Amino acid sequence: MTITCDTLIRVRYAETDAMGIVHHAVYPVWMELGRSDLLRQMGQGYAEWEAQGVMMAVSQIQLTYRAPARYDELVSVRSWVKEAGRRKVVFGYEISRDGVRLVEAESVHLVMGPDGRNRTLPDAMLALVTSAL
Amino acid sequence: MTITCDTLIRVRYAETDAMGIVHHAVYPVWMELGRSDLLRQMGQGYAEWEAQGVMMAVSQIQLTYRAPARYDELVSVRSWVKEAGRRKVVFGYEISRDGVRLVEAESVHLVMGPDGRNRTLPDAMLALVTSAL
Amino acid sequence: MTITCDTLIRVRYAETDAMGIVHHAVYPVWMELGRSDLLRQMGQGYAEWEAQGVMMAVSQIQLTYRAPARYDELVSVRSWVKEAGRRKVVFGYEISRDGVRLVEAESVHLVMGPDGRNRTLPDAMLALVTSAL
Amino acid sequence: MTITCDTLIRVRYAETDAMGIVHHAVYPVWMELGRSDLLRQMGQGYAEWEAQGVMMAVSQIQLTYRAPARYDELVSVRSWVKEAGRRKVVFGYEISRDGVRLVEAESVHLVMGPDGRNRTLPDAMLALVTSAL
Fold first, then answer.
1. Domain B4-131 -> CATH class
2. What φ, ψ does residue D44 adopt, rounded to 5°?
3. How far apart are CA D92 and CA D31, in angstroms?
4. Is B64 within 8 Å of A60 when comparing Cβ atoms?
5. ipTM of the complex
6. Alpha-carbon gap: C40 to the closest alpha carbon of chain B (Å)
7. How far apart are CA A41 and CA D113, in angstroms?
8. Where are the domains of chain A?
9. Tens digits of per-residue pLDDT, C81-117?
């Protein structure tokens, strides 16, 4: 069964814009926070991945905005692993507030070394990510 | 013939992350800057749109990352109108550095009033946007 | 006795820079988050202040950086009211990680109306802020 | 005679907040952009400093906000060297729009190596910075 992780975020004033709502470029930052929490909950935070020489370079993101969030609201980012491969991992996200869906999104990541070149996931990491599907 | 607009951006230190490259959430901000320049070049800046009660709410964004940018580099955002309708406008983007393509992207916008409800583009604005196709 | 409020913040990847540490412009954003929590804890969140037509425009900030923070660390922002007047309120901050002091700071705010003009704090708000000293 | 450098910045929508003005945490980012331009104009960009193992860690910032900036405005950041020492360099800033002063600021930097430890400026760099006073 798919493992999901819910991250609660209090909207910062700096995250709003002159329309009075959260600026759309803030959501990828929240997705990353959710993804980071998901990995930690699965047993190995992303800081440890990096320490082992495994980077997850963002290769694609896609977001659909359904409703706005506002200053001081508590929003929830639900994150999960959508696809897991040796070279590519895809995460899914649903961002909501009080049960109202604000944003649906997806991010595609390529496995890389600290030198910026493609590499493959070590077996233990692949098993970890696959087990979350 | 499609009107394009090139916006030059000097990469800020604050835009880089611990991988030593520009953080992926910065690109939507640059796309907005490019889109804003494109509208100004077409004859009516977005600030004037807002003053006339026409908002372009971001409804979708999609970015594909091909190569990273680094601190102090000069990157170029090319922007153009991809689709123009009374209720929806789509912009395309190509971000590059010295001819190397870094990011390809697209943003979908819904026409809204200051009350946050959908509305349609006034004729003059629709003509303006359509003429750029 | 001075009321203090501690806000825990998980460092976001987007908040780091190419030096591998949290960018210095992120701390004012964290201070605002701490100040916002402090007001909520004192009984009236800043969103309610705004709803009553009272803005706290930032007039001055001062930060001293002692040690850096890094991705994924848990930092704590301690906030308190340093000075309370009818026209001006000063907040103090200490940001730390595991007892290590990272940043000491202060922000000065002028009371303003939604029209951007100076005004004075209503009595009830002044009493609230003064009681926290 | 003090060398000054003027950097023009077009205000981004993402830089505004729900008060309809530029968020106060954006100004340190602009100051850094100005400082970076000043160093480049003086003959050696900060990227080259880093390449030579010399970091300028921010040790203190202080900003006084006098008037707000808004979306799409062109603001100008004037930067200059205020104090130059072997271990510490201080920069001054004045941010304005159409001759109206928005922000006055200062940043204090400590010279560091890539290992994060204090070091002293090489003679050539010290001469460069001192000549700008």
1. alpha beta
2. -150, 105
3. 9
4. yes
5. 0.96
6. 28
7. 36
8. 4-131
9. 999 999 999 999 999 999 999 999 999 999 999 888 9
